[in-house]
Amino acid sequence: MKELWTTVASLMGVWAFSQTLLLAVFPPQLRFALIKLFQRLFNCCSSYCYYDITEIEGVNTNELYNAVQLYLSSSASSSCSATSSNRLSLTRGLNSSAITFGLSHNDRLTDVFNGVSVVWEHIVTPRQSQTFSWRPLPEEKRGFTLRMNKRDKSYILESYLDFINEKANEIRRKNQDRLLYTNSRGGSLDSRGQPWESVPFKHPSTFETLAMDPMKKAEIMSDLRDFADGQAFYTRTGRAWKRGYLLYGPPGTGKSSMIAAMANFLRYDIYDLELTEVQTNLELRKLLMKTSSKSIIVIEDIDCSINLTNRKETTTTTTGGCDRKSSTFVDGDIETSGTNNSITLSGLLNFTDGLWSCCGSERIFVFTTNHIEKLDPALLRSGRMDMHVFMSHCSFPSLKILLKNYLGCTPDDVETAILQRLEEVTDAAEMTPADISEVLIKNRRDNKKALRELLEALRVRAEKNRSGLQRLGADVEEMAEEEEKRALESPKEGGDAAADGGCVEEEGGKELEDNIIMGLI
Ligand SMILES: Nc1ncnc2c1ncn2[C@@H]1O[C@H](COP(=O)(O)OP(=O)(O)OP(=O)(O)O)[C@@H](O)[C@H]1O
Ligand SMILES: [Mg+2]
Question: What segments bear the compositional bias annotation Basic and acidic residues (predicted)?
Fold first, then answer.
């Protein structure tokens, strides 16, 4: 033992002496060159190669550093024991409610990709002197060093880095709160040149809570899934990676709730485009260019936002309380006659389907309306609106979902007689899910009372609809009798009319009938 200590002491003495000699004999530049030479010699003999990924490259943040950090965070959290120590760093990013793990300073982690093992080291050194920079630099220099066997380099390096980028994007999306963007500031930009304002998107609506026909729901979910997984398909078929949805139906049937459910399902951001705030087609295009991939671009109540009825007329439209001049179109092209400084249907069609619509990818356009009949067919064609989804009044299957949402009860928990009665009246009542939700929310503390009140509300509404229909039938009959009487009183007139063509009379009768129906509605 004594001998061992003597050897260690003499070795340390030799080390101290050589260091003093090195410092005294070699000037700093020479020392640096020697170290470099030793490093090169070591690299030539070593079977490993090393890649440094620094946090800041020049004055720019190195995106790859962030990607590696995120990627390693998933491995670090799951394999804490694989690191050389049990210390991990924890971070929570801006706009993120998730905590991410990271390698602590100067720690190592082994990763395996395609059967090849590599080692990551997180290297942190103090920044020696603050060099001149337009922005303050962190006090520490941070970077990752990737070590892999030289023979594996050509085999995995490129695909490994691609994989890391992809994985990092996935983690970023999963961790980051989704955002709801709006263009409520009109055309003005913020300090970062952004036309969109954003807030965290926290809408709780999901496909599970959405009350609609289960078959239709499953179809939409599968369509969305296919879309999100369809990158290869869209590339192969030469189509832009986007999809259009038109949600239409009466107010309160869940169109906005469906958009929130779609965003939550795909984990996409939402851009709520307020068309009445957009003044020109150019502004619309700029807004589109500033949207990100993996997002849903929404235009609600499209029929109220812009005159979309006739592309071939010059019209002055009143939109959101302000007068707007539409341009003249010939098959959707803007005439350059001075009035093209406004937003037009042509601009909107280009927005959804033109070349500019492909400036990003993986985007869904959703339009909503209460009046589908008011929309120009050009807007409705496939490619622009691929899926037309009718959000209807509450059906019995939808009602069961609402009962589960608000009262927490399944059909088995409801008395058979009540359930049967509910089934009989739901369709006839034509109540919206919003109306039914209101009845259930008010009485949610007492399930029995809630069911009673709901049944009563449905019954009253169904009765009202039925008597309305009867009244309509009686009115139509009465009118028809009057017509008949008039025809008998003046047979010549009636005969002439008949000679002119019964369809005219028939159309007149139909018009009359339509007027009565509209009046009653
Ligand atoms: N299908 C539905 N499933 C679950 N809840 C619904 C549904 N439809 C409506 N609701 C409830 O009613 C409220 C209003 O619904 P929503 O705003 O989605 O209707 P909308 O169709 O967008 O109406 P509008 O045409 O007036 O914009 C929501 O907060 C939601 O709670
Ligand atoms: Mg809505």
Answer: 483-495
Tell me how far the alpha carbon of residue 256 lies from the centroid of ligand 2, in angstroms: 4
pLDDT 10s digits, 51-74? 999 987 766 778 899 899 888 887
Range of lowest pLDDT (87-96, 162-171, 312-321, 353-362): 312-321
Picking from 320, 308, 242, the residue whose alpha carbon sits closest to that of residue 276 is: 320
For residue 317, give the amino acid letter: T
On the 0-12 / 13-18 / 19+ scale of CB atoms within 10 A, 387 is: middle
Half-sphere exposure of 301 (CA within 13 A, CB side): 10
Residue 343: CB atoms within 10 A of its CB come to 25
Residues in the chain: 521
Task: Read off the tokens for 196.
Answer: 């969109």
| Ligand that comes closest to the CA of residue 252 | 1
Give Cα separations from 41 to 23, 26, 46 (angstroms): 22, 20, 9
Separation of CA 514 and ligand 2 centre (Å): 29
Place of tokens 């209807």: 392
Question: 36 C-alpha to center of ligand 1: Å?
Answer: 69
Nearest residue CA, atom 8 of ligand 1? Answer: 254
Distance 500 CA to ligand 2 centre (A): 49
State the pLDDT at residue 190: 66
Question: Which residue's CA is minimally distant from atom 12 of ligand 1?
Answer: 434
Instruction: State pTM to two decimals.
Output: 0.67
Q: What are phi and psi of 216, to 5 degrees?
A: -65, -40
Ligand 1, from 253, 258, 370: best to mutate by most atoms within 8 Å of Cβ? 253
Q: What's the Rg (C-alpha) of the chain?
A: 35
| 78-87, 449-458, 472-481: segment of lowest average pLDDT | 78-87
